[in-house]
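Q: What does the assembled structure look like for these inputs?
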Amino acid sequence: MRGPRRGIRRLFHLGLWGPEPDDGVEWEIEHHIEERADELEAEGLSRAAALKEARRQFGDVAAVKRELQAADRRSDQRRRLAIWLETTRQDVRYGTRGIIRNASFSAGLVTTLGLGIGATVAVFAVVDALLLRPLPYADPAALVHVRVQQPGSDFGRPFLPPDVVREWLERDDAFAGMLPHQRRSALFTGGAEPQDVVAHRVAPSFEEVLGVYPVAGRGLVAEDAVPGSEPVALVSEPFWRSVFGGDAATLGRQVVLDGVAHTIVGVMPRGFKFPVYSHTDFWVPLALSGEAAGGNVEVVARVADGAFERAAARANVLAAGLFEGRPRLDSATITLMPLEEQRGGNDDLRRAVWLLFGAVGLILLVAAVNGSNLLLVRSAGRARELGVRRALGASRGRITRQLMTETLGLALLSGAVAVGIAWVSLRGIQGLLPDSLVFWLPHAVAVEKRALAFAFAMSVGAGLFLGLLPALSSTRPADAASRAGLSPYAAHTAARSRLRRGMVVAEVALSVILLTGAGLLLNSFIRLTAVDIGVRTDNLALLQLPLTAQSQPDPALRSSFLPALEERIRAVPGVVAATATGGLPSSVLAFGIALQAEGQPPAGGDPPMLPMAEVSPDFFDVVGARLLAGRPFRPAAGEADDVAIIDEDLARHLWPDGDPLGRRFRISEGDPWLTVVGVVADLQLEERDKRSGDFELLSPFDPTTASGYVTVAFRAASDPARLFPAVRAAVHDLAPDQPIREIVLAEAAYAETIQIPRFLAVLVSALGLFAVVLAAVGLFGVLAYEVAQRNREIGVRMAIGASAGGVRRMVVREGLILAAVGAAIGLVTALALSRFLEGMLFGLEPTDPATLGAVVATMLLTAAVASYIPARRATRIDPAEVMRAE
Amino acid sequence: MTDRADLLQGTLDLLILKSLVAGPVHGWGISKRIRQLSEGVLEVGQGSLYPALYRLADRGWVTAEWGESAGGRRAKFYTLTAVGRRRLEEERASWRLFSGAVEQVLEAT
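A:
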């Protein structure tokens, strides 16, 4: 293009080797055509004709232009990418050098941040497994429990009679698949010793409905459930591994369940659980007809295309037909409850893990603020280097990018360390996990894909958080000159010092929040352990056995088994006493209770459940429960059925003023009247904080007719655990096929009820202490830096007569002021947040003055210690030396 | 006009690189030089010359810079790079090998 643009460029001497113009392609083609036209003109054509001919000869100008422009853009992008890659490579190299050159600084930062992120990742793994990660089935959101709801009832029951289910299966048009199943335990024999296992009965649609298939062998097929077919079983991966040693030859092997040989046809995948919240060892085919069907059936169904309402409506139409004329079902309706709805079990558990997640979040924040502060101090140390780089022409953006790259590198290193720390800490807390948490886990807790992604996101986030502040503040243009050492007293020092102090205050505040939570939880836990549960647990052990027709095949022997076992156990050297009971802590929990004393209206204000246990006459002596009034039970033969011993609380509840002995009450309307024969000192075997029922009801135990789970409590002279093998031997000696469910110290058994408080108290306390240490380190760092910066001022002060004590006091006072401000902010915030602890504390308020006082004292004391070291350093400044250095 | 189809695949790059040995030339100059050196036998069509030049530039065998042509017009000058020079030697050697072989086949009786 010859236009005026060229002239102007020429005029200003810009033309020679200018940058690539946007319309370069056009110019180049134009040039070609003009040159060709020159040639043609020389051959005799007019200029206009020559141009026209040249253009014709060139061909399709527009097409060539388009092609060239596209090629141009492509190579431009490639070039830009290459430049970007090269810059990044430089930044990474620069950053790596920076990290290595300041190895101890980097190690400190990586450790701090790694611990912070690691703790967060570990707790995330727990939260994720418990609440977030989809259930281990295909499209789990489409799975529902089919529940039967009586009119007027708030709770659906999951049970249906087998023949109703069989008919439903034939006619079903509500669901994409139905999986009837039945919870059953079985006696497993043929292993080292008889074992009480869970052999869950499932319909052959099992794998199809859940979308999970065996890792080895085959799944169940319809023929397996036909009565009279060869019994088969699928085995769980953990059972396969522990009992069969993970041997592939297990397939086709026979196992004896309840005396019947089953062929193992498949192994289910690791981590597979069904029902979700259960521990299952075997899955065996469920027959809905014939004599094998017996007992009620639960149904899990798959809803097609998320059409829950349509499925529910169809199911109700079907159910109306099936339920007609059946007692208890006639007017019942069907509700569908998504499997996901039960996630996390109960509120206590969900709140506990979220609380823990919040606590590690705070720790991460403290670690990040600490790291940011460290970086800020260091960036001040390299101000001169950055100033020179700026002066040499590095742009602000470029320097920011370099600093960010270095910080991101540090953060990613921290992330790697964090993964290791998370892995180790998950192993460490494995034993601390409350049983209820383990029960409600649909997945194993592990550092897997999602946790790794979380760790990565956290480290990148931390890197950005850490890098931005120092990067921005150290590249502020006005600072560049002072960075180069030209003006050491620039105003920015004041601003940065404020920033650093602000960070320390924030760290202290966050630590105080955590420490307050830790103090309250710890205090509450200690109070829980101190509760008198009404039983002396020292040297007491509990032996739990399932008594079934399989474990005790001979009815005659069965009635004499428990009395004989009691004798045997008493005969074990070291055993002081033993008593058989129908379950401890409590075998039965009554729900929907409406306690009523005879001749009075129902008392009202009842707890949601009532723990009940059946006990023998010598129960009170053996376990050390104190009978306050009345008598213990008589031996079963001489005792009436309708007698009860109640604990103090229950007695007070029923008869607030009066002697309960000989009076009658019932649990709810329709239950038989029970006569009180004794009152026992308050028993708290189920829950120590009395939130779900502080009453306890004891009834007489008949060892000759007992079935189901029974418990033999025995007291040893010392260390009962030592006697466990002898007690086991006594059981097997007496009944070779009798499995032992568990044999535990009573102390441990009753501590189950305080596992969640213990879990929280231990972990939050550890986090709180870690936070305090971090805050102290932060405080120390800032004070030490300030002392170094102010050495001239301090030197002058000392030269004109300030005493060493005075200088020390000055520095410590500064540290304490920062800590006090932080503690005040933290305390106020902690009080505002205390509602998160509501219902989790036992025996104290979230505002407990003693706990809060201890928290503040701990923080201030730590702050004083952290301040004292830089303070002492300040007094070592030699005034003469400082003056000479100027 | 000798059709560009007559140019064997790969020979265009060779010819362009060769025409740049003497020094920076613009696009028009390259096509003219090839025509002259081959005494009018080889004519490079514009439709393939410019895409080839862009391709060579992208590969780093030639660089392009804006300058002024003899007639005072603004033109893009292409210069052979060190990589391009090495490439030219390789292309030249393989061309010799190839054309010699073809010659030998044709000479055989």
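Chain A has three domains: 151-331, 347-529+756-885, 540-750.
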